[in-house]
Specification:
By secondary structure, the protein is an alpha+beta fold. It contains 7 helices and 17 strands. The protein folds into 2 domains: 97 residues, Endonuclease, Chain A (3-Layer(aba) Sandwich); 97 residues, Gcn5-related N-acetyltransferase (GNAT) (Aminopeptidase), CATH 3.40.630.30.
Length: 273
């Protein structure tokens, strides 16, 4: 069974309903890959595979914008991500399809955590892993960590003519199959109380949606970043960051590209109580 058939079988088995090809009127941009659509959940899953070359790296971002305008949550699920992180992808798709355990942040406590604990949690439960960070927080239900967030060190930037101590919310993740209601906001409040940032930047991966949850905790959208281009090694399945104009290092490498990111900014006074 090939990649697209595997995902289609998972969707029909774990998220039952009227899965069908996405109607052309929602996204009138041609894609050579299947796009499965669940009308009740307004969820669409696009299934691209790496290729030797792509003529237009902005194709998928344009698809994301069109889907958003039609109130459809579009996921670009690349084959290499499915192969390497299938269990995590399945858990995330189940959450998007309404199958999750609800945890209320009011029942949890926040604690600073150490690097190894943050790294183990985020490497296991975030699709993009755990880059370096300065501040690390965990959300605990009893003794179990159910969510984690990491933040950068301070960076001095000029905004509106004034010097600002800016930080970045680098990662947030919760246990697979869960939705921690208010969890990101509770971790953000802990960081704000302790550090007192001038502002906080963060990014939402357009391959998985527009990051509407950030707006619910006081972030506002600043814009979009360009797509990121990678070469995938056919043997290891690992991605190597490159520029769109750079060719593959070998004939066994294939190109993938993200839809880009949504860029968000939080400023003091915008965090809901």
């Amino acid at each position: 069974m090939g990649f697209a058939d595997e995902v289609a079988a998972f969707l029909r088995g774990d998220l039952p309903g009227a899965w069908a090809p996405l109607p052309d009127e929602i996204i009138p941009v041609p894609t050579p890959f299947p796009v499965w659509f669940h009308p009740r959940h307004r969820l669409a899953v696009h299934l691209p595979s790496p290729r030797p070359f792509w003529p237009d790296p902005y194709l998928f971002r344009n698809m994301s914008v069109m889907a958003q305008n039609s109130q459809v949550h579009l996921v670009h699920l690349w084959e290499d991500i499915w192969v390497r992180k299938q269990a995590l992808v399945c858990a995330r798709l189940r959450v998007l399809g309404g199958r999750f355990e609800r945890i209320h942040a009011r029942d949890t406590r926040v604690s600073r955590i150490q690097g190894p604990q943050a790294s183990a949690f985020l490497e296991a439960y975030h699709l993009s892993g755990c880059p370096s960070s300065r501040y690390k927080y965990g959300l605990f239900l009893g003794e179990e960590m159910v969510a984690a967030a990491t933040f950068s060190n301070k960076r001095s930037v000029v905004r509106n003519g004034e010097q600002v101590a800016s930080y970045e919310l680098i990662r947030y993740a919760s246990l697979p199959g869960t939705r921690v209601c208010g969890g990101m906001g509770k971790l953000l409040r802990a960081f704000v109380r302790e550090v007192g940032p001038g502002d906080i930047m963060t990014y939402a991966d357009l391959d998985w949606g527009f990051g509407g949850g950030y707006e619910s905790i006081g972030f506002h959208m600043l814009g979009q970043t360009p797509p990121l281009t990678f070469w995938v090694d056919a043997d290891s399945g690992l991605r190597v960051r490159t520029s769109f104009s750079t060719g593959p290092a070998s004939a066994r490498e294939r190109m993938v590209f993200t839809a880009g990111n949504m860029k968000y900014l939080w400023v003091p006074g915008s965090l809901p109580c």
